[in-house]
Specification:
Blueprint: H1 3-25, E1 29-35, E2 38-43, H2 49-53, H3 61-69, H4 86-97, H5 101-104, E3 108-114, E4 119-125, E5 130-137, E6 143-154, E7 166-168, E8 171-176, E9 184-188, H6 196-199
Helix pairs in contact: 1-3, 1-4
Length: 206
């Protein structure tokens, strides 16, 4: 195996590992982030996994994820170009495997993080990497629901400087997407109380 082939095969393995972690910890689940009196919900569609890897493919996003999750992704099913350089994927994938850390540990909520191409109204960071979120809208620009979706994984420590400041999360709740109310608490600041604005969204068992 040539050095180039070996490098690409290593990326393939990282994508497969990341897809299995995404499937086990994020896909099919909803998360509620509460900070101060504000809150928002995040879901992790399987179709958004591809965009977070930093690679290019001719497969549709759903098939790419399915192949990766099942360990069937081949090195011929993805490639790199100017917009998707090898170095970018190499930097992103270790953080993509650690993406669940943004749902089950104390994080910072950033507002209006600006990049070269877009301003993310909300982002989540642990200061090692940042997940830029977008509203759930259809192709016509109409809002589908109130959830935010993962759109960009950024591996840098300047996200805070590129935003309008941040707030430390007080609570993170989780539920299966099929359930109406949140029934698990993943992060809780014992010095804070759950605001009235989200109590109706949380199961009585909590």
């Amino acid at each position: 195996m040539s050095k180039k082939s070996e490098k690409k095969n290593n990326i393939r393995k990282e994508i497969i590992d990341a897809a299995k972690i995404y499937s086990a910890n994020l896909a099919g689940k909803d998360f509620l982030y509460v900070y101060g009196s504000e809150y928002f919900e995040v879901s992790f569609p399987v179709t958004h996994f591809l965009h977070l890897t930093g690679v290019k493919t001719d497969l549709n996003a759903k098939d790419f994820y399915k192949n990766a999750k099942n360990g069937k992704l081949s090195d011929k099913q993805f490639f790199f170009d100017k917009r998707h350089p090898f170095a970018n994927a190499k930097r992103k994938l270790p953080c993509l495997k650690k993406l669940p850390e943004l749902t089950d540990s104390v994080v910072c909520i950033l507002k209006d993080m600006t990049t070269l191409s877009i301003t993310y109204k909300l982002s989540i960071t642990n200061l090692e990497f940042t997940l830029g979120l977008t509203e759930n809208i259809d192709r016509k620009g109409n809002k589908v629901n109130e959830f935010y979706l993962p759109m960009s994984l950024r591996v840098e420590d300047s996200s805070v400087e590129k935003s309008n400041g941040g707030d430390i999360v007080d609570f993170i709740f989780c539920k299966d997407a099929s359930l109406e109310k949140y029934n698990k608490i993943l992060v809780s600041d014992n010095n804070k109380t759950i605001p009235e604005s989200v109590k109706e969204m949380i199961s009585d068992i909590l």
